[in-house]
Amino acid sequence: MRDLKSGPGRVLVAVYGVFAVAATGRSLVQLGLEPGKAPLAYSLSLLAAIVYLVATTCLLLGGDRARLVAIVSCAVEAVGVLVVGVLSYTETQLFPDKTVWSHFGQGYGFLPLVLPFLGLLWLLRGDHARERATR
Amino acid sequence: MTGVNVWLLGIVLVLSLAAAVWTVVMIVRDQSPPGDAYFGLLGALMLVLAVQVVTGLVSLGVSDRVVEKVTFAAYDVTALLVLPVGAALALVERSRWGTTVLLVALLTVAAMELRLWALWNPHA
Fold first, then answer.
1. Which of A23, A74, B53, B93 could be a cystine partner for A49, CB 3.0 to 4.6 Å?
2. Over pLDDT 70: what percentage of chain A?
3. What parts of the sequence cross the membrane (chain A) (predicted)?
């Protein structure tokens, strides 16, 4: 079974874990306290939280199926942070409150912008390693 | 009593940044796992963070300041949990990458401290 969590993967698990906790906490607070204030922004916060949780879990699980799901999660993340990043600048009225992805993840040191690409790099790099191993 | 004591915050920042520099040195030299002295430093840092949890939650209870209380309490408590998890990962992965996890943990603590400060002083 392919191991996604050893070596550099361990660092990814750590960073993804931090974001899973941060995004989940944020969306729980937002939806728990004032769900009506910014429905779109809060739904996106929840989506981000789920995506980070799924990615973290898949990295920990390892194996081909988990890797596939993790690749999809990273792709969703990349699209999410780019689309929300642009919209949070151009369509400010849609976002009365912030999400993890607002302004390309500015509130989190722009890590949400970098993270999906690091994730994809790690997940796809495994292909080359496997090709070498089977050759 | 102030919610985020500036001295406690300063100590946490200095200790975590010192530990971060130490961690970078270990990563560059490819030393793993970290030695007892290093974990002693992390222990000291956690002790200060524990004091911060107590003072933070107590002053949150007595203060009538407008603070996002739930978020503040969550950051206050979670900051204490980051290092043990990071240390556990670093001991499982006994390589440069495991030590890098500790760097991530320390920078996370430093970032959370700044966020705590911003939460306590929303209009500063």
1. A23
2. 91
3. 12-29, 41-61, 68-87, 107-124
Task: Answer whether residue B49 is part of any domain.
Answer: yes
Q: Please report, for chain A, the start and end positions of each structural domain, with discontinuous segments joined by +.
A: 8-127
Give one DSSP letter per residue of A78-93, joined into a string. Answer: HHHHHHHHHHHHH-GG
Q: Are B46 and B13 in contact (CB under 8 A)?
A: no
User: Residue A66: which residues within 8 A CB-CB, separation 6 or more?
Assistant: A4, A57, A58, A59
Please write the tens of the pLDDT for every residue from A86-107. Answer: 999 999 888 888 888 999 999 8
Residue type, A64: D
Is A18 close to B108, i.e. CB distance below 8 A? yes
Nearest CB to B97; choose among A8, A17, A109? A8
Find the domain containing B96 and state its range: 6-120
Establish if B78 touches chain A: CB-CB under 8 angstroms.
Answer: yes
